[in-house]
Amino acid sequence: MMRLLIDNDTGIDDALALAYICACDHVQIEAITSTPGNVDVEQVASNNRALLALCGRPEVPVLIGARGPLEIPLVTTPETHGPQGVGYATLPDRGTTASSELDAVDYWIEAARASPGELTVLLTAPLTNFALALRREPKLPWLLRKVVIMGGAFYYQGNTTPTAEWNTHVDPHAAKEVFAVYTAAAEQGLPSEKLPIVCSLATTERFEMQPEFLTHLAVEAGRAEPELVLANDPEGTLSTASNPLIRYLSDALRFYFEFHRHYDQGYIAHVHDYFAAGVAAGTLDYESRPATIDVETESKLLFGTTVADFRGLWGKPANAHVVTGNDPEAGFAELVTRLGNLARKLNTDS
Q1: pLDDT tens sequence across 133-143
Q2: I need a surface site. Which of 51, 63, 256, 328 has the fewest CB within 10 A?
Q3: Residue 110 neighbours by CB under 8 Å, 6+ apart
Q4: What is the pLDDT of residues 108-118, one digit of tens each?
Q5: Exposed e or buried b for every residue in 85-98, given b needs 16+ CB within 10 A?
């Protein structure tokens, strides 16, 4: 059983990643910590609670830490993910629980200290909460089992500015701080296998979902009627699927398909966070290279740009493993199987 702590800013692709993790029987979700990013943090937490309840995991704590980036105002992205963060999907929020009153950053530290070497961390949001946790407990790199980050663009076109990826652009100071801590830890002898695994745009954008994925997913879930999301449908068309998970994912992803088409990328969706989730869960294969990462926080032109030194030109030790290769075809086959099984189970249990 893998013990996983997730920090996200749900977000359509965050939601897909979380549903996937819920479908992995070998993963025990310790908690979801919510970070402001795609939407404000209260909405992130609401989205997380609602989706966990839908996926049969209502007992998982959903916690809030930071309310905004470390040094700059929060910028959200309703044009990408919708005003509530999950496109056209809607779910009732089950409301707060006693665990919701805990501070996310304190939870991270207490959990890591209580179970040294056992927790894997999946970060699919700006790195604000992680930076704050590292400030309070500099030994976290030693205490955690593995860290997986979705973020950055290395010698690759950005998706927020020409050079910057969304997560690092929202809070570049946090990302810079995180990688600086890992540089210092590497200088102090942190084992290479404990350095963060960074899934940047060059590899996450290879996970280019086609709308036919939802048709295949409905079949895998045992639905007799086809689930068709078509490019010529009127925008905002809602799913009529009886299966609640199929309906939720279809309505969320339709918005994402439409967004990508608005930006001349085709009727597709880059599901960045699912790939990172598969890396964290140990279910997706990948290749990586060690590198020293830093983040630009001063230049207006390059604000939020991530830079990776693969050749040691800075004379500093590697502070991360940058993913350089993956297998989207195998990844989507894995996704449709796991989510299909979960959707079928939820229909049986309801």
Answers
A1: 999 999 999 99
A2: 328
A3: none
A4: 999 999 999 99
A5: bbbbbebebeeeee
